[in-house]
Amino acid sequence: MSHSTSKDAKDNAKWSKEEERIIIELMVEQCKKGKRKTITFTFVGCKEIQRDFIRKTGCNYIDMQLKSKFQKLRSVYKEFKNACKQIGFSMDPSTKIILVDDDVWEVYVRDHPNAKNLQSHGCPLWNELCIIFGDTTKIKDTLDAEGWVPQIKTLLMSTKLHILGWVLHIPCVH
C-alpha cells in the first residue's frame, strides 16, 4: 500500500484497521513508559511512535497525519464515553458496541452525528483508548492485576446487560 508523505497530503492518510491497531498499540506503549503526562505525548514519545510505526507498517506518515489520527482517536474516545453515560445505553463487553433501542439511538445520533457508527461498529479498542486518553496522572498504574482498565471494569460491572430481551442491572462489586 502506498501512502503519500508530502505536505500536500496533510491529514488525508487512509488508515487500515491494522494500521490503526498498531498506532494505538504504540501509543499505549508510550503511555506505560510515562511519555504522556499531559494531553499529548512528549517529543521523544512522539518520535518513538513515528519510528516504530514506520518500522512495523512501512507507512511513512508525516507528523501532521499522525497528529490528525491522534485527534480522531480522541474524538472517538470522547464520543463513545459520552454515549456510554447516557441513560438506557450500555456497552456489549465483548464487542464494545453500544446497546440501545433503535428509536432511542436515532434520536441520539441526530444530536451526536459523530456517534453514528458506534452502534454498528462499536469501539473494539476501547480499553486501549482509555489508557491513552483517560486520566493522564496515573497512566503507569492504569491496568489492575487482572489486566483491566479499572474505569472500564467498573463500567462493565455496573452496566445494564441485555439478555433475551430483559434488561438486567448488575451492581458494581468493589
Structure description:
- This protein has 174 residues and is mainly α.
- It has one domain (14-169).
- 46% of the residues lie in helices and 7% in strands.
- It has six helices and four strands.
- It has helices at residues 17-32, 43-57, 63-84, 102-111, 126-133, 150-158; strands at 90-91, 98-99, 160-163, 166-169.
- Strands 1-2 form a two-stranded antiparallel ribbon.
- Strand 3 (160-163) and strand 4 form a beta hairpin.
- Residues 1-9, 137-143 and 161-174 have low confidence and may be disordered.
Key terms:
two-stranded antiparallel sheet; mainly alpha; 7% strand; disordered N terminus; 174 residues
- Distance, first to last CA: 48 Å
Can you count the beta strands?
Answer: 4
Strand content: 5-15%
- Placed side by side, the strands forming the largest sheet appear as 1-2
* Number of helical elements: 6
The oligomeric state is single chain
How much is the average pLDDT?
A: 79
Low-confidence stretches: 1-9, 137-143, 161-174
Helix content: 40-55%
From the alpha-carbon coordinates, what is the Rg to the nearest angstrom?
18 Å
Walk me through the topology:
Elements lengths: L16 H16 L10 H15 L5 H22 L5 E2 L6 E2 L2 H10 L14 H8 L16 H9 L1 E4 L2 E4 L5
Antiparallel strand pairs: 1-2, 3-4
Protein name: Myb/SANT-like domain-containing protein
Organism: Nelumbo nucifera
Summarize the structure.
With 174 residues, this protein is mostly helical.
